[in-house]
Amino acid sequence: MTSVVVVSAGLSVPSSTRILADKLGEAVRRSVAARGQEVDVQHVELRPLAHALADHLLTGFPTGDLATSLEQVRRADALVVVTPVFSASYSGLFKTFFDVLEPGTLDGKPVVIAATAGTARHSLALDHALRPLFAHLHAVVVPTGVFAAAEDFGATDDGSLDKRVDRAAAELAALLGNGAGEPAAAPVRRQVADEFAAPTPFEQLLREAGGNAVR
């Protein structure tokens, strides 16, 4: 059974952040199931955990529902994380939750990042705030981030939000494996050292610059 945990940090009730989280959770369920895997999608809502998170910062010990939520994230095969954008970045509540995770919890874990805001002007928060955060936590962030502005939930929505949601979900499902109990192959990453393994001799570069290329 593949376990996916959706973490949402909306503060209002109802919340556009939770609406987007639900969309992503359902899309991930469909995409993983389409690959022949059983999937369990669980939701962690951070708003009810705010006081417990503050206590955890002071005491160093999670309690009650917070301890349960942290354990859900630790055991998950993949995450979907959704935050409202405050001051051009993720919310303090969202950041606090990931601050209190045990080191190594997200190592190699596939993650979809998503955010909501009033206008599309805040869409870059995905790349300048969320993506670096989860790279620092050693998660594997899928290529497609999902941003939703207020108009994406309105009557004039052209369906582009659903397309982004479905694409991100499909990328997450691909990282989770092939449906036969085998994990997806890890991408081959070119190391910095590889770039200098066989440097071109300086004399050859000079000859080529002067039009006398070596044949």
| Helix-strand topology string | EHEHHEEHEHEEHH
How big is the Rg? 21 Å
CATH architecture: 3-Layer(aba) Sandwich
Distance linking N and C termini: 58 Å
Number of domains: 1
Q: What's the average pLDDT?
A: 87
Structure notes:
The protein has 215 residues and is an alpha/beta fold. It has one domain (2-188): Flavodoxin domain (Rossmann fold), CATH 3.40.50. 40% of the residues lie in helices and 18% in strands. The protein has seven helices and seven strands. The protein has helices at residues 16-34, 50-59, 64-75, 92-99, 125-136, 160-176, 202-209; strands at 2-8, 39-45, 78-86, 89-90, 110-117, 140-141, 146-149. Strands 1, 2, 3, 4, 5, 6 and 7 form a seven-stranded mixed beta sheet that branches. Strand 1, helix 1 and strand 2 form a beta-alpha-beta unit. The longest helix is centred in the N-terminal third of the chain and has 19 residues, at 16-34. The model is unreliable at 179-195 (pLDDT under 50).
Features:
7-stranded mixed sheet, 7 strands, Rossmann fold, alpha/beta
Question: Topology of this structure?
Answer:
Blueprint: E1 2-8, H1 16-34, E2 39-45, H2 50-59, H3 64-75, E3 78-86, E4 89-90, H4 92-99, E5 110-117, H5 125-136, E6 140-141, E7 146-149, H6 160-176, H7 202-209
Parallel strand pairs: 1-2, 1-3, 3-5, 5-6, 5-7
Antiparallel strand pairs: 3-4
